[in-house]
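User: I'm putting together a teaching handout on how sequence relates to shape, and I'd like one worked example. Could you take (apollo) hypothetical protein from Parnassius apollo, show the sequence you're using, and then write out its predicted structure as tokens right after it?

Assistant: Happy to. First the sequence, then the structure tokens directly below it.
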Amino acid sequence: MFHQRKFKQVLVLLCALVATSGADSEVKNTLCDVFLQDVNYLTLNCSRRNIETVPNKWPEQIDNIANEGGHVLITFFNNSISTVTQLPEIPGNRIAISFKSNAIIEIEDDAFRNIQRLVYLDLSNNRISGEVLRSEIFQGPYNDGVYSSIALETLNLGYNEIHSLDRYLFQYTPNLTRLYLNNNPIEILDHVTVLALSSAVNLEVLDLANVDIDSIPLDAFRGLMNLQQIDLSGNKFVNVPESLSLVGSTLQYLTFNNNPIVELNDDSFVGLTNLVQLEVGENDFLEEVKRSTFTPLKNLRVLHLCHNPNLRYISHNAFRGMKEKWTLKEVYLDDNNLSELSTDLMPWSKLEILGMTGNNWLCNCDLANIITKQEAGAKFKPGEIPYCAAPMKFSGTFITNITLTFCPTFDSTYATKKGFSISNLRPKHILWSIFGVAMIVCAGMLIGLLVNAMKAFYNKNIRSQPIRYINLHSDSSFA
């Protein structure tokens, strides 16, 4: 699961709180509504007002916000704005602005020049192309011959028409930590896009979901030594990108859903030693998880391996090398095509949460051992207990209801081996031994006589006589 941005969560919670506060905190404006919780928290709601241009003046209530420590949220969600012009100055220390779901095709230079304390900007779900995005958009005030930076931390560019990024796009946003490029027709991370990404050296969160890429150049992550979360879902990867190993020392959350991978193997997660949470789901072609797949993930806490309709096999050595120092607390294997699991796949009793619903479980002795003897049955969430699919007599039964009583048991004890001595022999043993030797000797003699008789008969009657040669001149019978 891809973790949400902390600041955004705070803003959403703030909006919910102020919206339910008393009537005294709400002041109406002709275009927008101003919600003032106190002097430090203000929301300007300009959503769904059919606004076509950015206002050149804010409601006077905004001036009441304290200059230091004030939080301001301004939302133009779902309007008809096509061009973002330069915004008026806004007091406050942390400012968030949303232009989500408009018709933006152009952003003027210096658009945010007057809002140096802008920390959150949502430009998602518009018609913005890569050519529109320029570093000049984010320029701060011009002082002493240079443009200063702005405080931008979160930039959401999802659901636009971006194919490529300008290499200098993040020149004036040194504090950028969260970048969302999801659902853009990028297709290829070209050279200038790679340069742009690698220049955002403080990035912690990068969303590249549904951008139709099938590879990531190594240089794309070079220098991103703070990257902690990445979403690569909905792309065309047939393997987990090797380039992820460059950020393996910092990467903690990886989402890799809905890609055409067929298998996971010992090369899939090489170098990702600090990964805490891994999500691999909705991969329609994924069939098996091979030996040592998860071995590199020394600090993994949560594994989501769910909703893979053709996943039928997980090697019993998939977690090879991890069992001695087990870190996993939550494992979710829901909605795959699994029927069996090895009893030694993992130390089941060390889990805190286990999900196994939506599979075709064969309730055999191995599964009974996992559920009962290894206590996996106590790890299911309430209401999420899986069913048996086979054999027929257990079909539809909760797997927690099967027991080891129907499984065969084997005697594991061994009889003590006794030493041999002459005293162990009995007269009958000696007699039978002599008789056996005599029979062997007699049989040998008979076979020898028979062989000799056959050879004599052959030499006398069957073997051809040698040809005799005579000298015609010396034989008188021919004289």
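A couple of points you could highlight for students: DSSP finds four helices and 24 strands in the chain. Confidence is low (pLDDT under 50) at residues 1-29, 410-415.
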